Amino acid sequence: MRCRKCRQKAVINMRQHRLALCRDHYVEWFQQQTARTIKKYKMIRRDEPVLVAVSGGKDSLALWDVLLELGYRADGFYLRLGIDEGIGYSDESYAKIKQFVAQHPGTRLHVVDVKETYGETIPEVARRVRRGRGKPCSVCGLIKRHEMNRVAYELGYPVLATGHNLDDEAAVLFSNTLNWQVGYLARQYPVLPGREGFARKVKPFCRFYERETAAYALLRGIDYMYEECPFSVGANTIYYKELLNTLERERPGAKLHFYLSFLRAKEKEGLFADWEEPSVELHACERCGQPTSAPGRCAFCRLWPEDVLEQPHESFVPLTLVEGA
To answer: What pTM, to 2 d.p., does this model score?
Structure first.
């Protein structure tokens, strides 16, 4: 198989695009497509600093790499979850990220260690608040959302970028459609606007298949974490991804068509335009200061024992800064 542009040997064939490319032209295509997505959905202005949420996986590290290559001032944020307990998942993830930083001079990585900061790892918090029932995913999601937004807002980053790819977005869309979660469907979009206390959230990889981001990472020599979170086994999202992958094998491009048709229906046909989000009065959490609809303290601050929160919030949220050589 030959590259469509230069006729050299192709390294990837994207059936949904009817496009085969060599290494150099694939990297170029991938970066250009990311730039087009950023421009189309008005994600990031050139003068805006971006905080990239990185996990050590292919998508987030590839996103950080692309944003740097496109000339954005992009810094990283890593939340050390403490998912180790004999498997070393968090340790290995952090090692991959520090290696990336070392290879990209001038980059900055902000790190929050959940154990060092709040006294417990994610699994330990989940066992305490859930009394040992089920997986820690809901607790993990709550802590991630709070800390990503807090760090972006407190450090003055107007934009928070995540590496969600097309497979992620299509699976969420499928789940929300299957269950007719109208509120979630109305809000699902490549950009979640910022407001007082919240950074703007963007997903520049929303139109890329997972295999496309993996190919970019490999061709760019990015050493990433291959293993998924050990708690993700059996998750509904993975099941929906498998169903969509079955459809994709029979109909190349089905996932992309499903997702883009949904976005076009919202943009051009006014799908869910009449839906109004229930009015919720927000106020500052009395502990951390972030906006919340809950009385007194937000859901995040209610996770922790009182003695953890005895000090003013400015003093118990230290950041570690790692900089590229």
So the answer is: 0.92
